[in-house]
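User: Sequence recovery, please. Input:
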């Protein structure tokens, strides 16, 4: 690929996270599926918010978190996503720009409010997400920054975008623009329930439009309808150029043609909150990939970034991520 002024452009749901601690009893009382992401309407969101304990508000969204991670690693990135011209929309825009990511998508002045995700963190560090997409579902092909997509080495998209029909069309349009410019397209499967909802179309998407796929063990097994990780690994081989399959404490497997790299998980003194682990793994990996690093080193960068984000509450890095990655790589 020719040199690009942007490393990665991320397209996703612009969401403000509200994080609070809760016990398993709270989840049971409110009928919440532990560890999953559930789409909710505005009324359900207001009811849950009223029942939650004290919360911390921070800009989130899967692809937004990934782009913040890439910026923290010194990468050049932009984000495309829809917010409303309201208080949460202003928070999201300020935070992602302050993280070093370009964000110029016009805010909506009518329609749903800015999306928010109510994240309940249980003592085992699992996060249960309840998402009101709000204005994010209003993303359409007209919101795409075609110049940014053509200029970026990689266009990275979250699987959650596959829910709203207009956003799905934006997704496909972005992939066409990127490939037309000789660039790469990357996808995160995002959530096993998301994969189940769109199983057949996700299979077509991965084999027909995706160059770099990110999935955790449950997601990749769901995609190929198997309980065996090894079976899923064999099936994804050849469906995309690179598959990055994460397995929590078991590390990750990176596949590319005949290459297979097993990357250990990075040690963590204490796991506080697993929110954003996959998002930051993708950030580290793509930061390495766009710099021409070997795939194993890209995987190590992903593992280090993921380990940092699960060591504290919140889905965006708090440490000097670039310095941390450099230090850990040189220790190896």
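Assistant: Recovered sequence (332 residues):
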């Amino acid at each position: 690929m020719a040199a690009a002024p942007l490393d990665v452009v991320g397209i996703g749901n612009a969401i403000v996270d509200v994080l609070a601690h809760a016990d398993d009893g709270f989840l049971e009382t409110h009928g919440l599926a532990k560890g999953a992401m559930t789409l909710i309407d505005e009324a359900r969101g207001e009811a849950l918010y009223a029942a939650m304990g004290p919360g911390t508000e921070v800009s989130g969204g899967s692809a937004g978190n990934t782009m913040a991670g890439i910026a923290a690693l010194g990468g050049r990135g932009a984000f495309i996503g829809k917010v409303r011209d309201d208080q949460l929309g202003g928070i999201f825009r300020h935070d992602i720009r302050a993280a070093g990511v370009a964000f110029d998508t016009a805010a909506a002045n009518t329609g749903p409010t800015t999306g928010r995700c109510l994240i309940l963190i249980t003592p085992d560090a699992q996060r249960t997400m309840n998402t009101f997409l709000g204005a994010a579902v209003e993303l359409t092909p007209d919101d795409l920054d075609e110049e940014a997509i053509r200029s970026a080495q990689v266009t990275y998209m979250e699987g959650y975008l596959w829910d709203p029909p207009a956003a799905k069309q934006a997704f496909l349009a972005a992939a066409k623009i990127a490939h037309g410019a000789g660039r790469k397209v990357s996808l995160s499967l995002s959530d096993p329930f998301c994969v189940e909802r769109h199983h057949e179309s996700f299979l077509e998407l991965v084999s027909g439009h995706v160059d770099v796929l990110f999935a955790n063990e449950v997601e990749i097994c769901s995609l190929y309808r198997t309980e065996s990780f090894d079976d899923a690994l064999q099936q994804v081989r050849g469906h995309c150029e690179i598959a990055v399959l994460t397995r929590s404490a078991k590390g990750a497997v990176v596949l590319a043609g005949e290459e297979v790299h097993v990357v250990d998980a990075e040690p963590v003194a204490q796991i506080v909150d697993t929110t954003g682990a996959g998002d930051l793994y993708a950030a580290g990996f793509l930061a390495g990939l766009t710099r021409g690093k070997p795939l194993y080193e890209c995987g190590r960068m992903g593992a280090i970034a993921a380990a940092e984000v699960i060591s504290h509450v919140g889905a965006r890095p708090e440490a000097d991520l670039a310095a941390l990655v450099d230090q850990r790589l040189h220790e190896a």
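The chain has a mean pLDDT of 93.
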